[in-house]
Backbone:
C-alpha cells in the first residue's frame, strides 16, 4: 500500500520562509516523479513544482525563483523550500507521486496523493 505523508505546514509571515516535506512509502517504481500541488481557498488545485528521479525540476510561473523542490537520493522523500512567501501562496499543499508518463502539472498523471498540509500566510 502506497502512502504519502506531508509535514511542515503552518503559518508564515509574508516574505518569510517555510519548508514542507513529503515521505512516500510502498511505491516500488525505480523511476518516478513527485510533485507538490496546492489548493487555494475558493480555487482549483494547481501544480506548484515537480521533481523527477533524475532530479530534473519544474515549477509553475507563480513560484519560479521563490520555491525550490528537492529530493533525497535513495529515499522517496521530497522537500519544498518556500522563500519570499506571498499571501497568494496560501492553501493546502499536497504531495503526489506517479510514474513518468504524462505531464508534471497534470493531476491525473499522478497515481497516489497525500492528505495535504495547510499553509497560511499573514501580512
Residues:
Amino acid at each position: 500500500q502506497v502512502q504519502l505523508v506531508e509535514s511542515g505546514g503552518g503559518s508564515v509571515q509574508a516574505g518569510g520562509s517555510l519548508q514542507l516535506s513529503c515521505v512516500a512509502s510502498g511505491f516500488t517504481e525505480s523511476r518516478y516523479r513527485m510533485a507538490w500541488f496546492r489548493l487555494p481557498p475558493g480555487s482549483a488545485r494547481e501544480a506548484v513544482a515537480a521533481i523527477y528521479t533524475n532530479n530534473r525540476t519544474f515549477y509553475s510561473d507563480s513560484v519560479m525563483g521563490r520555491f525550490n523542490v528537492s529530493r533525497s537520493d535513495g529515499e522517496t522523500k521530497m522537500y519544498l523550500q518556500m522563500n519570499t512567501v506571498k499571501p497568494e501562496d496560501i492553501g493546502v499543499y499536497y504531495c503526489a507521486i506517479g510514474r513518468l508518463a504524462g505531464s508534471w502539472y497534470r493531476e491525473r498523471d499522478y497515481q497516489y496523493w497525500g492528505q495535504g498540509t495547510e499553509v497560511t500566510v499573514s501580512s
Summary: The first strand starts at residue 3 and ends at 7.
